[in-house]
Amino acid sequence: MDRRHFLKAAGTLTLGVCLGTPGTAVGAADAAASPAPTADSTVFIPNAFVRIGTDNSVTVISEHVEMGQGVFTGLATLLAEELDADWNDVHVEGAPADVTRYADPAIGMQGTLGSTSIVSAYQPMREAGAMARALLVAAAAQQWQVSPDGITVMNGLISHPLSGRRTRFGALTAAAAKLPLPASVSLKDPAQFKLIGNPWLRREDSHAKTNGSALFTQDLKLPGMLVALAAHPKRFGATVKSFDATAARAIDGVVDVVPFAGGAHYFSGVAVLAKNTWIAQRGRDALTIEWDESQASRPDSAQILARYRMLALSPGKLARSSGEASATSAASATSAASAASAASIDDTTLLESQYEVPYLAHAAMEPMNCLVQLTKSGMSIWNGEQLQTADQASAAALMGITPEQVQITQLYAGGSFGRRANPHSDYLLEAVSIARAAAAQGHRVPIKLVWTRADDMRGGYYRPAFVHRIRALLAPDGSIASWRQRIVGQSVMTGSPLEAAEVKDGIDQSSIEGAGGPYEMRSLRIELTTPEDVAVPVQWWRSCGHSHTAFATECMIDELAAAADVDPYQFRRTLLAQHPRQRAVLDLAAAKAGWTTPLAPGTGGARRGRGLALHQSVGTCVALVAEISVTAGSKLQVDRVVCAVDCGLPINPNVITAQMQGGIGYGLDASLYGAITLTDGVVDQSDFDQYAPLRMHAMPAIDVHIMPSREPPTGVGDQGTPPIAPALVNAIFHATGQRIRTLPIAAQLMASLAAAPAGPAADPATVNPGGT
Fold first, then answer.
1. What are phi and psi of 508, to 5 degrees?
2. Residue 754: is it exposed, middle or buried by C-beta count within 10 angstroms (0-12/13-18/19+)?
3. What values do phi and psi take at 404, rounded to 5?
4. pLDDT band for position 44 (cuts 50, 70, 90)
5. Domain-ending residue, one of 176, 207, 238
């Protein structure tokens, strides 16, 4: 279904522009129970994405959650551009959960995933704005008895220059509501855009987030509400054998202690219900629980990675192949030579390297939380909702009701990076289970589940650990004769709502996406091994598979450039001869970074280096140049990152810049420090003292350069993250001659840099079972 047909099919466009009463607003608690407006003489309904009040307010309805990525601003820009609204009159509300009206065609459900929001909304939101504009113009023409062709609209003001008549939107809502929907609408030529591409447009959510009025789940309070904190087992799959709540019940403010069952890998637990979060946490700490660990899993991350290294020595399932089979066969036949750092075979050079990445937590600033109220007709849920359709279905199944009986109100989310779109609705089902257990004990009141940072860090569902083993043949002319890549790691799509679309013949497409990059290779073969018995809960993490395939691919490309004795920028340019778009982004990053100009010397004897990386994901191409210094004390400082991005037509340049900066910072944090480890089934990390976030003083200067384009827009929420790790380690090689092939960059590795030479050493790719 194309986007135009989707717009018409989205519930026949029945929410839309309703006549508002000046000075009134629907609060978050009311929104879930508010029915969609119906078509009558007092309601203006051109489509499902906007309502206009008699006070001239323009409220855009966002089907996607605002979690800091700027989607409220982006969607409002698209609609307001075609409506010709005054940006000062524009506000945004999160849409209720309703797949009939708000499905994202890119993922086949209502949700916010994979940087698809602007991609999917570009045409529908513009058409929604154009449709509302056409109806307002028709209403004005009817009242003024003039031709619609003589009417202009600018900044929310509708004018007829020949007669001198003018009015604002609010005066026409009742009249416009009575008109039939136009059969079609015309959209602006990009040359006419005033809001799209405007770098001075303020973010729609900036006021609320700076004055404290923005409503996050943690802020929401309903009458009679109780706060719930659940006691979780240390090991996944353990259940409650017995518990003693005497001490917890004795704490003033603790209302009750209830056992619950249901939800993801927590099959049971005990929740403390209290008047506030602090009391609930004290009550939980006072519980005495004996856990049944007979069915618990005991994964050990070190053992998992050791097993992955062994699996990478054997062929996996063929995931993708292209080019000359003879070259691949030649690479296979030379495996015995791989013990050497580089081997010459028939005038080609064979290189083999292994790259490893650990489990990663999402670590959003607002830990998981959810507010649930059971009602006579079903239930109401309030949270920073990222996957409405799946969560509706999961909650309904748990309660034995229909999805339509589950009303979800979308609030702001304090970050997510994929975590709130849990494939098993884990924390949401935990909240529903506790609300059900509380109601059974006579507490039929709103229940707000709150996770602490430790709950969040140890709650499971991490970015999977992966091992990549790459063997490549470098031809004498500097081209890549063969590239064979074996990837070993868990599937995030298996068991998720996207499994049918993303897992084909046992190959999780998200595990291999981005492998090999856009480069010309005479032969390419990607193999995947997906262990099915690793008992660590995993799910998508910012940029999904690109977060590890970019690291392996772009590091290996640099190793090949070094083996060919070719500048890594020029090496990539040659391999991108048939890819002008990617080449242009690479050129822009190199030019803005001054790639051909020597770096200024480091202070105090610090060694300096530049590293380059290029990666494309979800249609957006990003090139990064990282500049680093390694001090005499072997401390790494990331000085500057230059970013070039081609994301098609730039809708909101400031949002794009912010997303590139944020994505780079997030990836830099993971590259330097990020790792979740497990020992005998217990997660070792519990807070930011053990899972260190990037501190402000460590954030480099980031220069973002956006490629001009008239192509349809592509996503920017994830795309800054994948290339930063390889750009960083490639810069470290340039500065020190040390190759890093395992993330994160640990302190002991930094210590080894003190003895490294001042420039690149003769360190071609090596067989690297240990990682560095």
1. -80, 110
2. middle
3. -65, -20
4. confident
5. 207
Same domain membership, residue 692 and residue 618: yes
**First-to-last CA distance in the chain?**
48
pLDDT for 110 beyond 70? yes
What pLDDT band is residue 184 in, cutting at 50, 70 and 90?
Answer: very high
- Is the whole-model pTM more than 0.70? yes
Count Cβ atoms below 10 Å from residue 197 Cβ, excluding itself.
17
Kindly state whether residues 200 and 222 are assigned to the same domain: no
- CATH number of the domain that residue 156 is part of: 3.30.365.10
Rounded average pLDDT over 131-160: 97
Residue 168 exposure: Cα atoms within 13 Å on the Cβ side:
13
Does 111 reside within a domain?
yes
Domain membership of residue 80 (yes or no) is yes
442 and 472 together in one domain: no
In a domain, 764, yes or no: no
Residue carrying the six token digits 């939980």: 284
CA distances from 760 to 150, 344, 562, 735 (A): 69, 22, 9, 6
Q: Would you place residue 248 in the very low, low, confident or very high pLDDT band (cuts 50, 70, 90)?
A: very high
Same domain, 421 and 556: no
Mean pLDDT, rounded, of the chain:
89
Q: What is the pLDDT of residue 675?
A: 96
Checking if the pLDDT of 238 tops 50, the result is yes
Query: SS3 for 764?
Result: coil
| 685-710 core/surface letters (b: 16 or more CB in 10 A; e: else) | beeeeebbebeeebebebbbbbbeee
Environment class of 161 (CB within 10 Å of its CB; exposed 0-12, middle 13-18, buried 19+): exposed
In total, how many domains does the chain have? Answer: 3
Tell the burial category of 33 from Cβ atoms under 10 Å away from its Cβ (0-12, 13-18, 19+).
Answer: middle
Query: Percent of the chain, pLDDT > 70?
Result: 87
Boundary of a domain, candidates 450, 476, 510? 450
Do 194 and 236 reside in the same domain of the chain? Answer: no
Q: Using 50, 70 and 90 to split pLDDT, how confident is the model at 334? A: very low
Distance CA 677, CA 744 (A): 12
Single out the residue of 485, 498, 597 nearest to residue 540, CA to CA: 498
Whether 338 is covered by a domain: the verdict is yes
Q: What is the mean pLDDT of residues 632-652?
A: 93
If DSSP codes are grouped into helix, strand and coil, which group holds residue 361?
coil
State which amino acid sits at residue 739: R
- pLDDT tens column, 500-544: 999 999 999 999 999 999 999 999 999 999 999 999 999 999 999
Alpha-carbon distances of 522 from 287, 343, 583, rounded to whole Å: 63, 19, 19
Residue 566's domain spans which residues?
A: 312-359+463-755
Residue type, 204: E
